[in-house]
Amino acid sequence: MNARTERDLDAAEWIGSGLLARDPGDETVRRYTARLLQAQGRSAHALDHWTALRDSDANDFEAAFHLAEASVAAGLAPDAAAREAAPAANALFRAAIVDALASPAHALEGEFRHIAISGVAYCGSTLLDRVLGGLPGVKSIGESHWITKVHRDGRYCDMTLSEPLEDAKFVPCTVCGARCEVLTPAFRRSLAADNTNWYRKIAARVGTRILVSADKNLPKLTDKDPLLDLSALVVFKSPEQAWASQLDKLPKDRDESFYEAECRKYVDVWSRAYSAYLNHFRPHGRVVFLNFDAFTRDPEPLLRAVCEALDLGFDADVLSRTVPGHAIGGNGRAMRRLRDKDYGVDITPLPEPVLDPAHSAIIAGHPGAQAAWRRLMDRHASLA
After folding, report:
1. Given a cut of 90, is residue 225 above it in pLDDT?
2. For residue 217, what are the contacts with CB-CB under 8 A and spacing of at least 6?
3. Of 8, 86, 185, 315, most Cβ neighbours within 10 A?
């Protein structure tokens, strides 16, 4: 993972090959490796990986699409290429491959900037995604990885296209709902087929040359953009405030030992995540760190500083009202508050978290978290 986030792509490929030699069935590593090769324009080198993924799952749409694409490039008709690429899949699946071959998503060409809002869950990314998405010339997509997810058997999972496209229960656009005219089923299918230029395709679809996303975590960012052609706004709360947000999402009827154990696990996760941003995150563009606690106390000067650091046009009006274009996913509570107020933005200071003394002691006694917190605040201070 460090090689991926540091953009040491040769090392990432070499490590991936070694891991696959030990465990050929590691589909996560194999898919990342295939996507990296595609992003580098080395599609022929990716074919063995797509074949292995297709052989492991007959309904792996991305793998089957790339195999069919290669066959079409070699002169095979699309129908025959789909049959050859997905011999064990049903007719609907193969028809979806043909349709995706016929209507690929357009990737924005030329000048383009992607601002990736990053951090751990409940760090304030949904609000900042929507606020930045209202700035001049900017549009936000939210958590773009949800675009190709469907609800099936009580959970969200990757679309397979072995069912009619019109029956798929996609994650809805948070503004338009399930019938969004921009995030259409056909567009979602095209992204499921070909991950290459993911963010440029979304930017072309929503009509912008500056796209803001809130996919947040590093594995998702490197999966969707193996080349890390982006700038980033890393958003963080204090470890106490972050734990208070996480604690609010946990069940309310457990004993104290449960919450103390969860606190220990969470502080480990928080510390590792932000240490990775501090030590290993090297995208093409600039990385800016923002303390969300401070932002809620004094949003306008900090938003202005973020805009200056990321070369975005500033508009204070987005701190009072902003309408997301076609953002998807994000914190459900935050989105409901925006919709209920006709997208009026109400930024109020976060109250100081009142924690169980045992939880406070766990956080205060975690060397990694305390070291990361000090370094995060040093990076935040450089905004001023």
Report:
1. yes
2. 118, 120, 273
3. 86
